[in-house]
């Protein structure tokens, strides 16, 4: 996957220095010199790494980072600024999820590039976790749909078997009347009760085993 990065600074000399170092790396870099232009770029695509100053025209660096935190939670944010208090430092590291904070001037070739490599590794880990979660959610949703479809089929089948039970209940005793004319009243009542019980058991749970069992017991009743 090709690396990309958005660098935001209002100082041309800093931009030139930064771009000069990145020419040695295969990183797709886009530059914004103010917060307004940066926001327009962010609305167009997701960047893997964001490097920004705090003092910007238009949207300041804090608003840029806050926007990225909400819209692109996988993007790794790095701060590059002139000065920062201990309270601000704690805020950006803990509340704004900033990966690194650098004070100007900084050695882009050594310290910064090392942090950049670590930032890309972190991005890959976060993206992998997100993709894994999305895949699990998709599997759960597919399973839910499959279960709902199976339940619908079973419900329809149960409805058809219920209709069959009502129809078959009207035929109870038909076999007895046709083949059991020599039976006495007690034999007729016993046959009728067994036949009704057999039909009910088959229709309540109409699987292959119960249907076969019902057929076997019906043959026994006829003997």
UniProtKB/TrEMBL annotation:
Q: Which residues carry this modification: 4-aspartylphosphate?
A: 53
Q: Which GO terms describe its biological process?
A: phosphorelay signal transduction system
Q: Which InterPro entries match?
A: CheY-like_superfamily, Sig_transdc_resp-reg_receiver
Where is coiled-coil annotated? 123-160
Q: What's one Pfam family the UniProt record gives for this protein?
A: Response_reg
Record's keyword terms, sorted:
Coiled coil, Phosphoprotein
> The Response regulatory domain covers which part of the protein?
4-119
Domain of life, per UniProt, equals Bacteria
Q: What does this protein do?
A: May play the central regulatory role in sporulation. It may be an element of the effector pathway responsible for the activation of sporulation genes in response to nutritional stress. Spo0A may act in concert with spo0H (a sigma factor) to control the expression of some genes that are critical to the sporulation process.
The name under which this protein is listed is Stage 0 sporulation protein A homolog
């Amino acid at each position: 996957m090709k690396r990309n990065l958005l660098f935001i600074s209002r100082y041309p000399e800093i931009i030139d220095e930064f771009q000069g170092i990145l020419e040695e790396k295969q990183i797709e870099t886009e530059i914004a010199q103010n917060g307004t232009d940066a926001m327009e770029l962010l609305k167009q695509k997701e960047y893997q790494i964001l490097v920004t100053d705090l003092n910007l025209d238009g949207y300041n660096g804090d608003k840029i980072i806050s926007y990225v935190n909400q819209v692109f939670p996988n993007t790794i944010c790095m701060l590059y600024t002139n000065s920062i208090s201990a309270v601000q430092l704690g805020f950006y590291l803990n509340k704004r999820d900033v990966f690194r904070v650098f004070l100007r001037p900084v050695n882009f070739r050594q310290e910064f590039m090392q942090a950049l490599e670590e930032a890309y590794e972190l991005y890959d880990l976060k993206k992998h976790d997100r993709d894994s979660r999305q895949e699990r959610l998709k599997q759960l949703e597919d399973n839910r749909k499959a279960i709902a479809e199976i339940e619908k089929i079973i419900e329809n089948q149960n409805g058809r078997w219920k209709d069959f039970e009502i129809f078959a209940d009207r035929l109870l005793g038909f076999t007895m009347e046709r083949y059991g004319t020599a039976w006495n009243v007690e034999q007729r009542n016993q046959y009728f009760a067994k036949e009704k019980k057999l039909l009910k058991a088959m229709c309540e749970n109409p699987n292959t085993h119960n249907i076969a069992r019902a057929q076997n017991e019906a043959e026994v009743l006829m003997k």
